[in-house]
Amino acid sequence: MTAAPQSKASLWIGRLVVGVVLLGAWEFTSGRFYNDFWISRPSAILARVGDLAASGDLWFNLQTTLEETLLGLAIGIVGGTAFGVALASSGRFSGWIYPYVMALYSLPKVALAPLFVVWFGIALPSKVAMVTSLVIFVAFYNAYEGVRNIDPDLLDMMKTYRANRAATLSWVVLPSIAVWVLTSIRLGIGLALIGSVIAELVGANRGIGYYITKSAGTLDTTGIFAGLFVIMIVAIALEAIVSAGERRLLRYR
Questions:
Q1: What is the pLDDT of residues 178-207, one digit of tens each?
Q2: Which sign does the torsion angle of CA 107, 108, 110, 112 carry?
Q3: Over 8-67, what HEC string results?
Q4: Which of 36, 189, 234, 244 is most buried, judging by how many CB atoms fall within 10 Å of its CB?
Q5: 107: Cβ–Cβ under 8 A, 6 or more apart, which residues?
Q6: Domain residue extents for the chain
Q7: How many other C-beta atoms can be found within 10 angstroms of the C-beta atom of residue 44?
Q8: 110-136 b/e (C-beta count within 10 Å ≥ 16 → b)
Q9: What number of other Cβ atoms are within 10 A of residue 176's Cβ?
């Protein structure tokens, strides 16, 4: 009974050691073996994040990026999952539509960012559209494959009981693709953050991406890395939240 806690403790200790070693090596070599102008140093980056937090600039920019990220993530996951379930359940119609979905998926999403600015301006809608365009296809493909991999016997059983589509969806389809949807969310977190930052790099007046662009314009590498560090922390926090929710939802497994 004590093996699991020890294993978990060793996992976290190992992660901590690796992080300390990497950051320590970065801190030690920066300014000694190369000019710290190029990649700054961990101490300077943490100090900059602290200054941003103290001045209020951190939350001012972060709340915008979070709003864009979470809205686009929610729309992309819900829309992509619904479309994936509908198309996978549509029979022959699926074969007609699927190639066009693939064609849209192949479009370089980064190239769409300027187009979204033209359509929606530099305000929130263009950022949400960019995030949604990245997330929706991940959700679609996971839901589509999830439905196609449902045990046919379960579907036949529901037909035997003359269950309507709503009952089949509630009792068979959604529980069966729950893991696939959670995978979409976990993959979508990184894509959503990337999409919001890219959209802010193209055109914005606030946000972490805007701060990175502003820092790059003044050759402030510490500011650039501070923005990247904040994005990384947000991704880790969102991943931890999803992992905790996954453990609760999938306890039956």
A1: 888 888 999 999 899 999 998 888 887 888
A2: negative
A3: HHHHHHHHHHHHHHHHHHHHHHECCCECCCCCCCHHHHHHHHHHHHHHCHHHHHHHHHHH
A4: 189
A5: none
A6: 1-34, 37-249
A7: 18
A8: eebbeebbeebebebebbbbbbbbbbb
A9: 16
C-alpha separations of 161 from 79, 86, 156, 164, 166 in Å: 30, 22, 9, 9, 13
> Do residues 196 and 65 touch, judged by C-beta distance below 8 A?
yes
Please provide the CATH number assigned to the domain covering 37-249. Answer: 1.10.3720.10
Residue 96: both structure tokens together: 């007609």
> Among 12-26, 36-50, 168-182, 224-238, which stretch is predicted with the lowest mean pLDDT?
168-182
The structure tokens listed for 228 are 């990247």
Q: CA separation (Å) from 171 to 125, 154, 167?
A: 35, 10, 6
The amino acid at residue 181 is V
